[in-house]
Amino acid sequence: MTEWIGAIPTQPTTFTGLLDPFDASTQQNPFAAYRSMRRHHPVLHLPDGTAVVSRHADVVDLLRAGTLSSTQEAGAAGAPVASLARHSRSVMVAADPPVHTRRREAVAPSLTPQALGGVGEGVDRHVADLVAALPTTGTVDLAREVTSRVPTRTLLSLLGLDHAEEGAVRTWTTDFSDGISPWAGPDGEESAGRALTSLADHLEPLLEARRRSPTTDLLSRLACDPTLEGDEPLQQAVLLCTAGIDTAADLLASAVAAVAADPALWAATVADRTLVPAIVEETLRCESPVQFLMRRVAEPCTVAEHRLEPGTPVLLAIGAANRDETVFTDAERFDPARVRRGERRHLAFGSGAHRCLGAPLARIQAAAVLCALADRHPALTLAAPVPVRPRLFFRGPAEVLVALGA
Ligand code: HEM
Fold first, then answer.
1. pTM, rounded to two decimals
2. Can you tell me which atom of ligand 1 is nearest the CA of 3?
3. Which residues line ligand 1 (CB under 6 A)?
4. DSSP one-letter code for 73
5. For 262-293, how does the pLDDT look when each residue is reduced to its tens digit (9 = 90+)?
């Protein structure tokens, strides 16, 4: 997702102590570290100068206060490699008002629940096709066969594109998110930059064709939007892919893993589909696909008695905030019932001016997958422990092996 384009120094750094993003066991389970951070180091200073903020209230305050910036200063420490910088200049997520507002307003109307009416039917069709292609018995990796594929097809349909390039688009968006973490280093950034360039090269002629003869699809709306300038239409289209595919794939896989790991919850879901939205919300809270938001201090501010000076890179640890025990009862527990009790304040989609525009679409997809699996595979069970992809910045299963027809 482009929001994390290199606002943070990427020179190799040795991380030890509370939060080591390179440590394999922290990547699998960062939650004990997050707990210590909230309790003892609500502003944790990493060796590279980054301040990590982990309490729910502090994260919300900072996201709403306007003291942090989403932009990068050219030439500043941590500025991204050239290929990334070129693509990040024009995206809404790397901009502050008023430029951010103008870009966001060009896209937002196409992603409201009302506007997505027809898209929802398309999602149901993609999900039905992928679930129907599963065998009736045996062990399958639902991440590979279903959950990683639904978001790519959905995004391509939303833009108005066919699925011929599904595999390539998926690879580019995964390479991008693998390389965009602040801890990916220059090689990761180079790889993310190459992936963005390939994606932009793929979308540019399609956008140009829509400019000449527009249709009703989102790519045409971007191509013909009079408020967007220069390469802004192209870069918002690229952003939709980089923001909306890998994240949604991680949510879908984590939701499936959660129900497959809990036979009682799955049996209840099979019997009553009204449980599905709460399972999706609880997955977003407990297994937030985006664990951190990147910012830079624009105006001096004080957080939990720590003064942050302009230019300081800041990581808002939304994955930690979402398990804050002062906001969520028994916060480490996966408990969809909390949603009915009104505990709905998770920050998985961010908050404030940059709050995720794709939240309704992500929820539609997750619900569609759980409902289709409940229809076709009511007896599925988890066949093996679920490994998390080896990274800290984003979170999602590497595979979800389930036994079908058990
Ligand atoms: C579960 C799936 C998703 C998660 C967890 C997620 C998470 C987020 C988060 C945390 C932000 C805020 C970034 C920031 O403050 O810097 C964001 C922004 C954004 N997301 Fe999502 N996202 C998801 C799916 C999608 C989808 C499906 C789309 C597109 C169809 C999308 C499009 C966007 C856009 C355009 C922004 C930038 C908004 C702005 O800068 O004003 N996201 N997302």
1. 0.94
2. 16
3. 3, 70, 92-93, 104, 111, 239-240, 243-244, 247-248, 251, 289-290, 293, 348-350, 354, 356-358, 361-362
4. -
5. 999 999 999 999 999 999 999 999 999 999 99
